[in-house]
C-alpha cells in the first residue's frame, strides 16, 4: 500500500496522477506528479472537477465540453477493455523470480513513475534479493470491475465478499481494498505495520465477462494486477512460494502465494510483502470468488494470522 503522494490514476487514465493521502484518493488528478497536494476533499475514483476562473461563461462552457469529451473517451475505453484483461485460459504456472512474461495479461505502456513508493503488506520468510527487471515494469491491462458494488451479506462480524467470508484479525475496516478495481463486491480489513506500510486481507468476486475463466488462471491474473498496481508502485520483482490446487469449504480452487519486492523507501524495514490469492469456484454461473492476503516479508506473527485466516475461510 502506498504512502501519501501522487500515483498513476487507478481509474486507468493515461498520463494522469491521483493523490493518495494514506487513507483515500483525491478527487483531483494532475499530469505533474511533482505538484503540491490538492486542497479538495478526497473520494475514490472521483473525476477531477473543473475549476472556476476569471474568463466567465465562455471558459465555463469550454471546460464543460472538455469534461464531456474526456468522459466519453473513458467510457469507450472501459467498454473496449472489458473482457480483454485475461486472454489465455490456461497459462503456464510461473516458477521463477521476476515478472512472468508468459502471463495472460498484456503489459500496458508504462506511465511516468512518481517519486513515493507504495504501502501494502503480506508475509513469509525473507528470501534472497530479487532479480530486478532490465526495464521498469508497466501496469498490466486489468479489467474494469466495480469493487464497491456490494451484494447482500449477513451482518455476523465476518468479512464478506463474493461467496467467501473470513474472521477479521486486523482492527480497521479498509477502503484500500476498493483499489482492486478489476474485482467486484470487495471488502477487507487492514493494519498499519510501520509508517508507509500496512497488512491487509480482503475478499470479493471476479467475473467471467472480465476474462477470469478458471481458478488457476484467475489467481495468476489477479496477482499480476495487484503487483503492478499502485499497491506496489516500486515493484522490482516477485518470487513464487507455491501455486497449487486447494479445497475451500468443499469447493475447488487455486492458491498462489508469492513474495513481492519493491524499491525500499527511506526508513522501510522490509523488502516487500508475502501475498496470497485464493480463487474458488463456488458454482455460481459467470463468477468466481477470491481471498487476498498481504503481510510484510519476515513478519512471522502476521504470517501466522494469514495462515489462520485462510484455514478459516468459509463459502457463504
From TrEMBL:
The chain crosses the membrane at residues 57-80. Residues 5-37 form the DUF2510 domain. The keyword DNA-binding does not apply. The keyword Transmembrane applies. Residues 122-136 have a biased composition (Low complexity). Residues 23-51, 85-171 are annotated as: Disordered. Keywords: Membrane, Transmembrane, Transmembrane helix. Residues 107-121 have a biased composition (Pro residues). Signal peptide: none annotated. This is DUF2510 domain-containing protein. It comes from Microlunatus endophyticus.
